[in-house]
Amino acid sequence: MKLYTRTGDGGETSVKGGRVRKDDIRVEAYGTIDELNSFVGQAAALAAAAGQLDGLAAELLEIQQELFDCGSDLAFRDPAGRDLKLTPEAAERLEGWIDAHTDAAPEITRFILPGGSEVSAVLHVCRTVCRRAERRAVTLSAEVEVPAPVMTYLNRLSDYFFAAARAANARLGVEDTAYIRSADVFRKRDS
């Protein structure tokens, strides 16, 4: 099997249902999700290498699968009547993981700087790329139907990366660095 097809040499690519320009907003949306997936893979590798973050590495592997589902669902020119891969349960599971990671980290009242441990730093990169992917999906939704589970998932996923980054630092004994000019912006957790 050859990896190159030469069909995209003129600036077009295939989507499910036809061909579009490579700078089409649909391609931009699922391409940004693909970029995010690569950073998630890096974070998973770092978490696995850290030893004490095996649960995090397993979560990230599941997220990589779901990001492929998101990209697949966005690749339809017309998703109506299609069997889509991402289900609402994926975002619900993220919420449970977010809660667990939030409980594993010390409370914060101020914004924090991205970083700390190497794992946490990459998870913060994942968070920001995820927000960009979400913005691209919102732009796409102004033109065509975007499956609701994809929109919800991307919104929840950036929160997951923030919570996971903080929990990774806590588990590795690395303190978050507060943004020193931040006002108190986070409320106390409900007990």
Automatic annotation (TrEMBL):
This is Corrinoid adenosyltransferase. PANTHER family: CORRINOID ADENOSYLTRANSFERASE (PTHR12213), CORRINOID ADENOSYLTRANSFERASE MMAB (PTHR12213:SF0). One of its GO terms (molecular function) is corrinoid adenosyltransferase activity. Signal peptide: none annotated. It catalyses: 2 cob(II)yrinate a,c diamide + reduced [electron-transfer flavoprotein] + 2 ATP = 2 adenosylcob(III)yrinate a,c-diamide + 2 triphosphate + oxidized [electron-transfer flavoprotein] + 3 H(+); 2 cob(II)alamin + reduced [electron-transfer flavoprotein] + 2 ATP = 2 adenosylcob(III)alamin + 2 triphosphate + oxidized [electron-transfer flavoprotein] + 3 H(+). Residues 3-167 form the Cobalamin adenosyltransferase-like domain. One of its GO terms (biological process) is cobalamin biosynthetic process. It comes from Paenibacillus sacheonensis. Homotrimer. Its EC number is 2.5.1.17. Gene3D superfamilies: Cobalamin adenosyltransferase-like. Belongs to the Cob(I)alamin adenosyltransferase family. Keywords: ATP-binding, Cobalamin biosynthesis, Nucleotide-binding, Transferase. Pathway: Cofactor biosynthesis; adenosylcobalamin biosynthesis; adenosylcobalamin from cob(II)yrinate a,c-diamide: step 2/7.
